[in-house]
Write a structure and sequence with these properties.
Keywords: Signal. Pfam families: AhpC-TSA. The protein has 200 residues and is of the alpha/beta class. 38% of the residues lie in helices and 16% in strands. Strands 5-4-3-6-7 form a five-stranded mixed beta sheet. A hairpin with a 5-residue loop joins strand 1 and strand 2. The longest helix has 20 residues, at 2-21.
Length: 200
């Protein structure tokens, strides 16, 4: 009789222990249906690292209103970032030169003068190509033309964009990015007049 009572007591104790530990093990606790698990997951904050969860989407460059022809970027001969979109809204002179070109060297002084005379009203940008950046930087220093930016176009990407096939060429754009002139101006003569007509 005592053996039966002990066995019955042991069974009851085991049942009580199992019902108390059920939610901590691998078995599903009462009321934990798939729906309630999904709802709990939805209310739990994401475990995504904060840097990923809060990082704003990468912004695209502001090109609205920028003429297609000015949608280019690069580096200047002194290593600064350059964005062609900053030229929009004003007449622009793009001077395509090479460091070893004597005609380009002869144009440097007049181009720098035009850049100074029309500062704030028109853009003047040198686009150096057909050589290495070290030579381009030396040219700018030797000709004292560092008063306006010079894009280092070693790969020739900007030259291709404007269909320039030889050095010593000026490409002049109006404030809307429309080309008004493309060609050689020996010594830079006539450049000031062409820009003057565009700034009014």
């Amino acid at each position: 009789m005592r053996a039966r009572a002990r066995t019955l007591l042991a069974v009851l104790l085991s049942a009580a222990l199992l019902s108390g530990c059920g939610s901590g093990g691998g078995s599903e606790a009462p009321g934990d249906s798939q729906d309630s698990q999904d709802a709990a997951a939805a209310s739990t904050p994401s475990q995504t690292p904060p840097s990923e969860a809060t990082a704003p989407p990468e912004e695209a460059p502001a090109t609205t209103g920028t003429p297609e022809v000015l949608r280019f970027t690069g580096k200047t001969v002194d290593g600064k970032d350059f964005d062609g979109a900053t030229l929009a809204g004003k007449p622009t002179v793009l001077w395509f030169w090479a460091p070893w070109c004597p005609k380009c060297r002869a144009q440097a002084a007049e181009t720098a003068k035009v850049a100074a005379d029309f500062s704030g009203r028109a853009n003047v940008v040198g686009v150096a190509g057909l050589d290495r950046n070290d030579s381009m930087r030396d040219f700018v220093a030797q000709t004292r033309s560092g008063t306006f930016p010079h894009v280092s176009d070693e790969a020739g990407e900007v030259w291709k964009r404007f269909k320039v096939t030889q050095q010593s060429v000026y490409v002049i754009l109006d404030k809307d990015g429309k080309e008004t002139y493309s060609g050689v101006l020996p010594g830079g003569k006539g450049l000031a007049e062409k820009v003057g007509k565009l700034v009014g």
